[in-house]
Amino acid sequence: PQGSEEAKAFVNAFLKRSMPKRKDEAIQDILTRKAVVLEHYSKKKTRQKRKKTKGFTAKQRREMRLFEIEPEQQRYAIFLPLHELWKQYIRDLCHGLKPDTQPHMIQSKLLKADLHGAIVTVTKSKCPSYVGITGIILQEFKHVFKIITKEDKLKVVPKLNNVFSLEIDGFISYIYGSKFQLRASERSAKKFKLKGTIDL
């Protein structure tokens, strides 16, 4: 056990370390009150900024050919199961395509639906060479559809100035490409307004 003098010296030394900004007189004054409030100077923690994981740039995606379909994979038969999955997806989305279902309800659902796997036909176009192209949509971009035809040819069809027809369970819907120039992710959140007449 320490003596009273040693204990007093320890307390004084401890208080000096704990309260470096206080003078000796101030420390003695605190001791006479028999109540000591130790001041704690905490080091400010520097917050580390979280690094956002950056995806590939458009140029890098093109160089890596991420969205290109290899020639040996460009076969219509390969993507028929995708079309069957798409049809089931639309039936579930529209709660079953019954004969008494309102066409405008199906149309509004299709406007926001994912079209990868749908069979579409170009019915009208300002460029006659596009009219009649029929196939499964493999990729949808903001301005174009990539379609695989029954002849196993991959066609890049622009949305602008083209009208596409889409048939499922007897329901035929028309897509006006000029009003459809959105990415699939953007389209799902967009509110489409009903218009009386639409030009190519």
TrEMBL record:
It is found in: Nucleus, Nucleolus. The keyword NADP does not apply. InterPro entries: RNase_P/MRP_Rpp29-subunit, RNase_P/MRP_Rpp29_sf, Rof/RNase_P-like, Rpp29/RNP1. Keywords: Nucleus, Phosphoprotein, tRNA processing. One of its GO terms (cellular component) is ribonuclease MRP complex. Belongs to the eukaryotic/archaeal RNase P protein component 1 family. Component of ribonuclease P, a ribonucleoprotein complex that generates mature tRNA molecules by cleaving their 5'-ends. This is Ribonuclease P protein subunit p29. The gene is Pop4.
